Amino acid sequence: AQSVTQLDSQVPVFEEAPVELRCNYSSSVSVYLFWYVQYPNQGLQLLLKYLSGSTLVKGINGFEAEFNKSQTSFHLRKPSVHISDTAEYFCAVIGMGAQKLVFGQGTRLTINP
Amino acid sequence: DGGITQSPKYLFRKEGQNVTLSCEQNLNHDAMYWYRQDPGQGLRLIYYSQIVNDFQKGDIAEGYSVSREKKESFPLTVTSAQKNPTAFYLCASSRTYGSHGDEQYFGPGTRLTVT
């Protein structure tokens, strides 16, 4: 079985500052990894995903994530955030051969002017 | 435009009443899912369907029921047996079920309040 831990429940940052949202996973098999964003009172939207190949994955809205197999991490980064990035971010994992996508608890990103 | 629609956006019911949440997709996806979202608890899987006329219980199926009579539709009924039904409900779909790297596409959600 897989599990996901998002290490920070809330992350406050100032506008135009860089941000990193941390995600660690546990799995005995190879995995596929996803980051989703949820704006208030909306559904989830895919930011990016790692399936294979390059460990640095670029997504929408200037976000990127790096897959680190040795540290079992998939941290999400953005070099300069905007007010519009205020949202909740979910990391998710599914193991190869597994059936179910497992979500982390979410990280609430708050951008202060 | 392809996507997932959920209706209504907000739903209010009295305790003891069953209520059905609608979910429709025009993405031609085989798999569909229902999640429940509560503050600080992430997403919890209620039911999923790998293909039409098939569905399976997820992690928190008690007090819920579903049907999958058409590929594009996966309605969720919240019954009076569900002890804490007030929550945000999200429907999702994916091309296939299981670990093929297919991402899930989400609807806008229905916020259910039961008093």
Quick structural overview:
The complex is a heterodimer of chains A (113) and B (115). Chain A is mostly beta strands and 113 residues long.
Overall radius of gyration of chain B: 13 Å
Identify the most extensive interface between protein chains.
Answer: A-B, 25 and 23 residues
User: Can you give the helix content of chain A as a percent range?
Assistant: under 10%
Count, helices of chain A:
0
Helix percent band of chain B: under 10%
Poorly predicted tracts of residues of chain A: none
Q: Could you tell me the strand content of chain A as a percent range?
A: over 45%
Q: What structural class should be given to the helix and strand makeup of chain B?
A: mainly beta
Separation of the first and last Cα atoms of chain B: 36 Å
Give a count of the beta strands of chain A, DSSP E runs of length 2 or more.
12
* Separate helix tally of chain B: 0
Which parts of chain B are unreliable, with pLDDT below 50 for 5 consecutive residues or more? none
Query: What summary fits the major beta sheet of chain B?
Result: 7 strands, mixed
Overall geometry of chain A: globular
Query: What is the terminal separation of chain A in angstroms?
Result: 41 Å
Rg of chain A, Å, rounded: 14 Å
Oligomer: heterodimer
Structure write-up:
The complex is a heterodimer of chains A (113) and B (115). Chain A contains no helices and 12 strands. Chain A is an all-beta fold. In chain A, strands 2, 5, 6, 10, 11 and 12 form a 6-stranded mixed sheet that branches. In chain A, a hairpin with a 6-residue loop joins strand 10 (87-95) and strand 11. Chain A is globular. The model of chain A has no long low-confidence stretch (mean pLDDT 95). Chain B is an all-beta fold and 115 residues long. Helix content of chain B is 0%, strand content 45%. Chain B has strands spanning 4-7, 10-13, 19-25, 31-37, 43-49, 56-57, 64-66, 76-78, 87-94, 105-106, 110-114. In chain B, strands 2, 4, 5, 6, 9, 10 and 11 form a 7-stranded mixed sheet that branches. In chain B, strands 1-3-8-7 form a 4-stranded antiparallel sheet, with no helix packed on it. In chain B, strand 5 (43-49) and strand 6 form a beta hairpin. Chain B starts with a strand and ends with a strand. The mean pLDDT of chain B is 93. The A-B interface holds A 9, 32, 34, 36, 41-46, 49, 51, 90, 94-101, 103-106 and B 4, 6, 40-43, 45, 48, 58, 90, 92, 97-99, 101, 103-109, 111.
